[in-house]
Amino acid sequence: MVTSAPRVLAVIPARGGSKGLPGKNIRPLAGLPLIAHSIAAARMVPSVTRCVVSTDSEEIAEVARAHGGDVPFLRPAELAADETPMAPVLRHCLETVEALEGQRYDALLLVDPTSPARDPEQIEAAIAQLLASENLDGVISVSQPTFNPTWVGVKPSAEDASVLQRYYEVGTGITRRQDAERFLRINGNFYVWRREFVLGLEDSWFDEGRHGMVEIPEAQAFAIDYAYEFDLLEALVAQGFVQLPWLTADAAGATGARGPAGRPARA
Questions:
Q1: Domain containing 201 — which CATH number?
Q2: If 0-12 CB within 10 Å is exposed, 13-18 middle and 19+ buried, where does residue 144 land?
Q3: How far apart are CA 45 and CA 43, in angstroms?
Q4: Does 76 lie in the same domain as 30?
């Protein structure tokens, strides 16, 4: 019996109205516009059927297309405001692409431009984990931060704001880093969800679903919102502490020939 391969839609959301770092989605990082790194990463994931950019900006759309991005529509203005949550943006993109193609997808991969330090093999592992686990709605990237907030996290006391108290009660009595329970954080590097979960998502994806994880190094866990974070990542890439596989000679050879959906062409 022949069965078709699962169809995975990668979505790169890139609205034009960034306040923390204006123009960040097309600002050059290591010689490429920031959004181009997400386009390149998605193209290197074998399970991705199609990758589209969701933007309200003609300028971003033009830059994305110049770097091989697929921009089949412009996002409506009501889905590009500062306060717009991600759920309706993803739902709009999935429904629009499916309507244009006349075909359904099995899963959606979210690759935000502001988290460019990706390893396509980790994304492929997340997709495989989701498709193999019927009890999961999604698989997300996590990492272990360089400090553990369960034992060093503090806040002003509710009774006296000049006095500190522990933020997490679980840290009470812990005096050494080694004795604290391991702490992982959601880092935003990538998310993959089932189609049905995306279409039914109301607000908080974590609270509404069951999720698995792929742990990545904290050095990859960048989420760029401000100039300092942008400059720091660029310095780390320049010094070789963070690798961007599509910038290497091997990646250039592997991604040279492209199929019709932005995937590597097959012989």
A1: 3.90.550.10
A2: middle
A3: 6
A4: yes
